């Protein structure tokens, strides 16, 4: 009976999500669209590229807040835009990057 349910899944559902070239993460939205976001790779020192709560994080949040400000209101509040997904990953609150939750 378990085989029956496995066959019912579509090929798209079985296919692993892979981000576009140069992007680190991918998210499948409720409508089925793939959204790739975030810079791929490591930082120069070999550590993680995304470091919330640092001066680099504050710089990123300030830049991305400016991008967000220029968007129409419908996109500004959409959680599935690449900018908003990256801001969530950097833990941005306004133009500051927070360390904890």
Question: Which secondary-structure class do the elements indicate?
Answer: alpha+beta
The largest sheet is:
2 strands, antiparallel
Taking all Cα atoms into account, the compactness measure Rg is: 17 Å
Q: Indicate the low-confidence ranges by residue numbers.
A: none
Strand arrangement within the widest β-sheet reads 1-2
User: Number of DSSP strands?
Assistant: 4
Number of helices: 5
Shape: globular
Q: Note the gap between the termini.
A: 43 Å
Helix content: 25-40%
Please, could you describe this protein's structure?
This protein is of the alpha+beta class and 101 residues long. It has a domain at 50-101. 38% of the residues lie in helices and 16% in strands. The chain has 5 helices and 4 strands. The strands form 2 sheets. It has a two-stranded antiparallel ribbon with strand order 1-2. A two-stranded antiparallel sheet has the order 3-4. Strand 1 (23-28) and strand 2 form a beta hairpin. The chain is globular. It starts with a helix and ends with a strand.
